[in-house]
């Protein structure tokens, strides 16, 4: 690490955080020349490996890369995990010294991370480093907004200001000199296993039966897992580079820990907040793609007129509208969905936008909206119970909110689908689908098979 922070503290609870609250955050942001985000990602390897993150919104709108950990925020269990992260973050910010003349969203001190899907689900060892909430305040961060590049350095105040600014200046110089990205070799896939397929098909059939006979439960999203084994440990950087090249219309995300990384390419925004503008997305209802343009249009039209998919979609729209209503004015919800196409699948898509009421934070909105019926079901509590009972696995961070919030309260969170956990020589991929009373198990198996493809392709495991 270029700046040797003596305060690398893992805040596991509010109490511990309070004990550290005399440390003042100092943050510097500078506009810099163009720099390759992957070169920046590698810049402090191997020292910072396990302490990095990567984010890119569709169409290269915003790219944020963090390297090195000034501190992390984590917690386990409990429904108040959203507000606890927010309280700890606000406490750090309340005494922070911030030198950022630009105040562009995504620059300056920023928290990147996410939450687990379900704090009450069974817990698997492989997800243990992530807990139920994990956020990073990076030491070094690159933000790219369109053609503009910003570098932020964060440190805790521990020395004379003059020597601090000297260090920061040196850091900027070193970072900018070493900015060449080196190649990482492709992983060699040795084994690909779709886990418990017969059991999963039985669970889907059972849930469909329950949906048919129930007066109260309308939708449940069930997911399944695929395990990949490689000849050598898989590089998170390789995977994220491939996703970046292959999935232009999706959000690319990566959160590293020293014991496993979570990465994916999700088309689904949960919520974006820029000043008081709020934007959310209902994404549910799916159909495949065709290489033949006319056939592809036909498939899209079929989806736009399919009652089962429209119903599934509408449940999500209604819930998102209901969750945002108490916190937003001027909510706009188009009457009909449109299509959102990614390379392997097309979805029904409805944007929901509004103006947030004063005092509404993005983390609060995330807590109010998660899990939407696109990933959980309707009604939420009953659907979550069914998911726990039928899936019998730990989704970890799959299907959960992941994203960022900056010191000005701007931010964006997505739903972490089309994703996987990379752990040494193994990777665990996840894919799910919305079930309603007239769902067919074999169709759902096929749909989830398609949803594995973005990650599979990025890891060299997609057979043509
Ligand atoms: C659950 C996933 O996707 C979700 C389910 C969808 C559906 O059932 O049609 C569509 C988009 C996503 O909201 C996944 O990709 O794993």
Automatic annotation (TrEMBL):
<dbReference type="InterPro" id="IPR004561">
    <property type="entry name" value="IsoChor_synthase"/>
</dbReference>
<dbReference type="InterPro" id="IPR015890">
    <property type="entry name" value="Chorismate_C"/>
</dbReference>
<feature type="domain" description="Chorismate-utilising enzyme C-terminal">
    <location>
        <begin position="199"/>
        <end position="451"/>
    </location>
</feature>
<keyword id="KW-0413">Isomerase</keyword>
<comment type="similarity">
    <text>Belongs to the isochorismate synthase family.</text>
</comment>
<dbReference type="InterPro" id="IPR005801">
    <property type="entry name" value="ADC_synthase"/>
</dbReference>
<dbReference type="Pfam" id="PF00425">
    <property type="entry name" value="Chorismate_bind"/>
</dbReference>
<protein>
    <recommendedName>
        <fullName>isochorismate synthase</fullName>
        <ecNumber>5.4.4.2</ecNumber>
    </recommendedName>
</protein>
């Amino acid at each position: 690490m270029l700046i040797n922070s003596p305060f690398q503290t893992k805040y596991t609870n509010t109490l511990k955080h309070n004990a550290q609250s005399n440390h003042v955050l100092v943050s510097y942001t500078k506009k810099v020349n163009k720099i390759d985000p992957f070169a920046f990602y590698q810049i402090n390897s191997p020292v910072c490996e396990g302490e990095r993150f990567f984010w890119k919104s569709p169409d290269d709108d915003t790219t944020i890369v963090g390297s090195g950990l000034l501190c992390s925020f984590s917690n386990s269990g409990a429904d108040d995990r959203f507000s606890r992260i927010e309280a700890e973050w606000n406490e750090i910010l309340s005494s922070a010294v911030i030198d950022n003349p630009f105040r562009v969203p995504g620059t300056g001190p920023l928290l990147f991370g996410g939450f687990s899907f379900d704090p009450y689900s069974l817990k698997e060892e492989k997800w243990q480093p992530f807990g139920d909430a994990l956020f990073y305040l990076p030491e070094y961060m690159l933000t790219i907004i369109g053609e503009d590049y910003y570098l932020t350095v964060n440190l805790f105040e521990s020395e004379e200001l003059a020597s601090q600014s000297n260090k920061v200046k040196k850091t900027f110089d070193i970072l900018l000199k070493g900015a060449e990205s080196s190649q990482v070799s492709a992983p060699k896939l040795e084994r690909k296993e779709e886990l418990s397929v017969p059991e999963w098909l039985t669970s889907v059939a059972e849930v469909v039966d329950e949906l048919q006979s129930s007066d109260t439960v309308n939708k449940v999203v069930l997911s399944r897992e695929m395990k990949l084994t490689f000849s050598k440990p898989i590089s998170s950087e390789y995977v994220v580079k491939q996703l970046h090249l292959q999935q232009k219309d999706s959000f690319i995300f990566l959160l590293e820990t020293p014991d496993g990384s979570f990465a994916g390419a999700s088309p689904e925004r949960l919520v974006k907040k820029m000043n008081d503008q709020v934007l959310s997305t209902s994404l549910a209802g799916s159909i495949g793609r065709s290489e033949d343009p006319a056939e592809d249009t036909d498939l899209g039209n079929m989806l736009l007129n399919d009652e089962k998919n429209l119903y599934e979609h509408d449940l999500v729209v209604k819930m998102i509208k209901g969750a945002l209503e108490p916190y937003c004015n001027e909510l706009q919800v188009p009457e009909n969905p449109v299509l959102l196409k990614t390379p392997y699948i097309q979805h029904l898509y409805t944007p929901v936008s509004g103006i947030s009421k004063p005092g509404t934070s993005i983390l609060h909105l995330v807590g109010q909206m998660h899990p939407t019926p696109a990933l959980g079901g309707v009604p939420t509590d009953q659907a979550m119970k069914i998911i726990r009972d039928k899936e019998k696995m730990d989704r970890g961070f799959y299907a959960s909110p992941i994203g960022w919030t900056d010191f000005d309260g701007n931010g964006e969170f997505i739903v972490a689908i089309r994703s996987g956990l990379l752990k040494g020589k193994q990777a665990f991929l996840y894919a799910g689908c919305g079930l309603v009373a007239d769902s067919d198990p074999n169709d759902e198996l096929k749909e989830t098979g398609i949803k594995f493809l973005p990650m599979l392709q990025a890891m060299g495991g997609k057979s043509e």
